[in-house]
Amino acid sequence: MPHRITIRVYYEDTDLAGIVYYANYLKFIERGRSEWVRDLGIDQAKLKAEGGGVFAVRRVVADYRAPARFDDLLDVTTEYQSHTGARLELRQCVLRGGKLLFEARVTLVCLAGSGRPQPLPAGLIAGLNENITI
């Protein structure tokens, strides 16, 4: 079952045509990922401070299907797809009233302080095993 948060579109999120500016969907899904990780019990600031690494976006494949507009309430979903070593694959969607507006396949990597890949944190793997059917 996908993780879900609800956000509202503010005037600052829109362009001159009154629709959500395309790059803001990336911000919306970033918020969704941050809340998903938090709900898995991972404190990202603590993880970094203790040398457990940070998450970085390696790749995003995005599909814009329909526009969102000022004052819309949007659901942002985050769904685990797979993981290997230092890599995590997610599917993220932005919906309005159940209608799919934006969809992305996101690849994250876990990076050490040196900027080199390191294995995904054990706490994340444990959270995935506990909360998600793999």
Automatic annotation (TrEMBL):
Signal sequence interval, chain numbering: none
Pfam families cross-referenced by the UniProt entry: 4HBT_2
Key words of the record: Hydrolase
PANTHER family recorded: 4-HYDROXYBENZOYL-COA THIOESTERASE FAMILY MEMBER, ACYL-COA THIOESTER HYDROLASE YBGC
Name this protein carries in UniProt: Tol-pal system-associated acyl-CoA thioesterase
Family affiliation: Belongs to the 4-hydroxybenzoyl-CoA thioesterase family.
